[in-house]
Amino acid sequence: MPIQSTKNTESSLVLIVDDDHISATLISSILNKVCRCFTALSAADAIKFCENQLPDLLVVDVNMPGTNGLELCRQLKARQDTANIPLIFITAELGEDAQVSCWQAGGNDFVTKPIVAQTIVHRVRNHLLSKLRLDAVIKLSFEDSLTGLYNRNYLNEEYPRLSRQLMRDHQRLGLIIFDVDYFKQYNDTYGHLKGDMCLENVATVLKGYTRRARDAAIRYGGEEFILLLPNTGLSGTRDIANQILTDIYNLNMAHKHSPFDRVTLSAGAVSVQNMDRYTLNDVIEQADINLYDAKLKGKNKVISG
Length: 305
Hints:
alpha/beta, five-stranded parallel β-sheet, 2 domains, 10 helices
C-alpha cells in the first residue's frame, strides 16, 4: 500500500470494467466530470491495468463473458495491492440472490441497470471521498513527517501480511538497513537543519528504488533507513544497496569530519525465504549484524549474507 499524495475526487482514477464498449463509454462520459476514467473490456485487462497503475475505485459489470465481475472482484480482494480498492458493481438483476452475490464477492456497492446518471455519480463521489479520507488517515499513521517515507508503524503493520504473501508465492524478501556515517558529527558541525536536509536527500534517493508496488522505503529511526524488496535474491539486494551507496556518494554532500569528505552510507543486506521461520526482528537483526560489520570495516560499504 504506497503513500499517496493528497488528492481530490477530480484527480482520482476510476477504472470501468465492461465487455460492452458502448456501455463502458457511456459510464465514462457520465463520470468524467467527477473523476478521471479509464476503461477495461475484460477481467484480464482490468488485472493488467491494476498491476501497472492502482485505481482509486472500480466500476465493474457483473455479467461479462469468461471471468465475470464477481470473480474479478474476488481476485482483486485476494491481492494485497488491490484488496482495499472500493468496487461498485453494475448489475441488471434486482433479486435478493443477485444482491447477496455482490456482497459475498466483496463488492462495496452496486448500481442497477438501466443506470440513472445522478445515482452513479453520487455513489462514485461518496466512495471516492471515503477513500480519500482513509488515505489521509493512513498517511498520517504510516508516514514519517520529515522524509515522507514510511515509518516503523507501517513496517510493523505490513510485515506480517507481506511475509504471508511471499510464503504463498514461494518468493524471497530482500531487506537492506542503511545508516548515515558520522551523522552525529555532521549534526554537531552543520546544525540540525542541515542534518534534516541530509536525511531528506537520503530519503529521496531511497524512494527512487521503490519501483514496484510492494517495494517500500522506511525511516527506521534517527539516521537509519530500511528498504524492503520483495521477490529479490541476495545478489539483487546487494546490487541495489551498492547502487544507493554510490548515488549518495555522488551527491557530494560536504562532511569535513568524514574521511570521505562527504556524506556516505553503510549498509547491511539480507535476503530470506521460508518466511514462516522468521519474525521481523529476526530479519532486521541479521541485516543489522551486517551493517555493524560494514561500520567496523571502514564504512561506506555494503556487507551482505
